[in-house]
Design brief:
The complex is a heterodimer of chains A (339) and B (296).
Chain A: E1 4-5, E2 11-12, H1 22-43, H2 47-73, H3 81-97, H4 102-124, H5 129-149, H6 151-154, E3 160-161, E4 167-168, E5 171-172, H7 174-177, H8 179-202, H9 204-214, H10 216-222, H11 227-252, E6 254-255, H12 262-275, H13 282-297, H14 304-318, H15 322-335
Antiparallel strand pairs in A: 1-2, 3-6, 4-5
Helix pairs in contact in A: 1-8, 2-8, 2-11, 2-12, 2-13, 3-4, 3-5, 3-11, 4-11, 8-9, 9-10, 12-13, 12-14, 12-15, 13-15
Chain B: H1 15-43, H2 50-68, H3 70-93, H4 101-123, E1 139-142, E2 145-148, H5 149-171, H6 173-183, H7 185-190, H8 195-217, H9 227-242, H10 247-267, H11 275-286
Antiparallel strand pairs in B: 1-2
Chain lengths: 339, 296
């Protein structure tokens, strides 16, 4: 079987560098997918459904950031809520203290997680994967404690409103807070993220990071520096987690320490695991399934954590490659003409 | 919130008393963290639910103590958690031993969700405070202020655990195997050591220590379902800073991190939770393998 063995032990086809000719066609497809989002509010009239779908898309972006880190670095983050919550709190804190313009803080809320992840990454991507995972959980929880305890800053457990000006980037603020328009904004962001990461995964950088994931020592012997590319992947993953947090804060207009809690990191991770990190888009599929199940759980949501935990265990053991991995295997088999 | 493990909240206490308080917290952290070091040494995985086991241990001893008293409660808690450890080894670590470590991590992380939900359902999410046992309820005068005897007892527990572990690891055959395996599990296996048979015992000791630390945490901090997620911050940081497989490293890291975290809680309580991170960053920046970890 051609292909490299992924950290989860399943065979993953070696990513091919996309020929330049395929890029325009890919971008056209992405634009088409983005445009399709505009049709959704015309078809779906239920505000409740649109609200759920908007949330699902925001969490899909978070899940993709976690999945991308697993795919390119072989590292599993148990603390991505740190980036999500950090970005959301940045918007809220700026609304309270009014330091910079709302446009700038939106950009900063994506940039800060990236810079922080890069600097932290320089230290922790060198550690064993297990230590990396432990420290992401510990780091995110300590941020959670910080926001919980520093009441003068962030109002503790009660959370704080996200005060925004009446327009953002020249767009009326209502656009970001009504489900029918916010769905489109989030959808376009999701498509943009998937397109960007897919192109990146096929680029030299993407192939290099997979090579480092497979065998860091060998990549070093060939002459590549290995720590910086891995830290860059972590930074990009952090930025995307931050983007999800920005969308969340704009849409909800309120932030609590729950945005930094380990259970949010865990939910993002389980979406990635259900969807499978074999593909860039797998975690987004996982997020959609997650929200459908959560909605269907109804009265059982009182014990939602137990349901999540059990699902995580079952999926990890029985379907380690996730649903996108199953799909990919199925289509590969169909393409090969085997039964 | 999961109670601050400290201790002297007022700044009125002298610095010396605060340093002893830091020693109390560090000792407690060691008892909790060393359980993970044991498990990692043999299985090369970690138990992400260790904090939940600790929390469960606290609740089990609280429930048992209501009928049987503190000391029997402690025994019950250690026994229940050790039994859980045997089950964890038998049904998670052993079947998944051939998989990548991340599979075990994800499964134990799933347990974390389940256990927190279970404890919330059984005991509710309100804080529960636990009194120190009568024999240790008093206080002594130290550096000119009153100091609870119970906190000195916590230090004593850590000393006993450290000595017992050292004795066990250095002077018994099983201890030799455990030490060998924590240095190089493959070679140890090739020498004929059956790590599967050892690991039920070792994992049981590791989770039993979570039960023990949960019990001694009762009178130190308030019980709540979120206490496990709170304590896991320092616990994981101690294990990684100490070098993952090193008992001595974990001991030093626990005392240093416990000390500074406690001082932080007294003097800069708002930002105290990031102090362990900063210490760890400094250590790992200089020594990526941790205080006492092996090189690559």
């Amino acid at each position: 079987m051609s292909g490299v063995v992924s950290p989860r032990g399943s065979a993953v086809p070696a990513p091919a560098v996309a020929p330049a000719a395929r890029v325009p066609r890919f971008l056209a497809a992405a634009a088409l997918a983005a445009a399709a989002g505009f049709a959704v509010p015309l078809v779906v009239s239920s505000q409740l459904a649109l609200t759920l779908m908007t949330q699902a898309v925001i969490y899909a972006i978070l899940a993709i950031s976690i999945g991308f880190l697993i795919r390119q670095n072989g590292l599993t983050s148990f603390g991505h809520a740190a980036f999500f919550g950090m970005a959301a709190y940045l918007l809220a804190l700026n609304g309270k203290f009014g330091a910079i313009s709302a446009e700038l803080v939106v950009l900063a809320a994506v940039a800060l997680p990236a810079v922080l992840a890069f600097l932290v990454g320089l230290v922790i991507v060198r550690l064993p994967a297990l230590s990396f995972s432990m420290l992401t959980l510990a780091g995110a929880q300590s941020l959670h404690e910080l926001m919980l305890r520093w009441r003068e800053l962030a109002n503790g457990d009660d959370g704080m409103p996200v005060r925004l000006p009446s327009t953002l980037f020249g767009v009326d603020i209502d656009v970001f807070q009504s489900p029918s328009s916010m769905f489109v904004v989030c959808w376009v962001a999701l498509v943009g993220v998937v397109a960007l990461l897919t192109l990146l995964a096929g680029s030299h950088f993407g192939v290099l990071t997979v090579a480092i994931r497979e065998n860091e020592e060998r990549a070093r012997y060939v002459g590549y520096r290995t720590v910086v590319p891995r830290a860059l992947v972590f930074a990009l993953s952090g930025a995307i987690g931050g983007l999800a947090g920005v969308l969340f804060a704009l849409y909800n207009g309120f932030v609590t320490p729950g945005a930094l809690h380990w259970s949010l990191s865990g939910e993002g991770l389980i979406m990635a695991v259900i969807g499978g990190t074999h593909t860039i888009w797998g975690p987004a599929l996982g997020a959609v399934i997650f929200f459908i199940v959560k909605n269907a759980a109804g009265d059982l949501t009182e014990h939602w954590p137990a349901i999540i935990g059990t699902t995580l265990i079952v999926v990890t053991v029985l379907v380690p490659q996730g649903i996108s991995g199953l799909v990919a295997r199925f289509t590969a088999r169909a393409a090969a003409g085997k039964p | 919130m999961a109670g601050i493990p400290a201790v002297g909240k007022g700044r009125g206490h002298g610095t010396m008393v605060q340093i002893v308080n830091g020693l109390v917290y560090g000792s407690f952290l060691y008892v909790l963290a060393v359980g993970l070091v044991l498990i990692f040494g043999l299985r090369r995985v970690t138990n992400f639910a260790h904090g939940s086991f600790f929390m469960l241990g606290a609740y089990v001893s609280y429930a048992a103590a209501a009928h049987l008293g503190f000391w029997t409660g402690m025994v019950v808690s250690v026994a229940v958690l050790a039994l859980l450890g045997v089950l964890l080894d038998r049904f998670v670590f052993r079947p998944l031993a051939g998989e990548e470590p991340i599979v075990s991590l994800l499964v134990t992380f799933g347990l974390l969700f389940v256990l927190e939900d279970a404890v919330r359902t059984i005991w509710g999410k309100d804080f529960i405070s636990v009194a120190a046992p009568e024999a240790l309820a008093g206080s002594v005068t130290m550096f000119g202020s009153q100091f609870p005897v119970y906190r000195l007892f916590v230090i004593a527990v850590a000393v006993v655990v450290a000595l017992a572990l050292a004795l066990w690891l250095r002077s018994t055959r099983v201890g030799l195997y455990v030490r060998a395996s924590s240095v190089d599990p493959v070679t140890t296996g090739m020498q004929g050591v059956d790590t599967d048979r050892l690991s039920a015992l070792v994992v049981a000791i590791g989770t039993g220590l979570a039960g023990l630390s949960g019990t001694i945490a009762g009178p130190l901090m308030a019980l709540s379902p979120s206490m496990g997620a709170y304590i896991i911050i320092d616990c994981f940081i101690v294990v990684v800073t100490g070098g993952l497989t090193s008992f001595a490293g974990a001991f030093v890291a626990a005392l240093v991190i416990g000390q500074f975290h406690n001082l932080g809680l007294v003097y800069v309580p708002e930002i105290a939770s990031v102090i362990p991170l900063l210490i760890m960053g400094a250590v790992l920046g200089l020594r990526p393998q941790g205080l006492a970890g092996q090189g690559r």
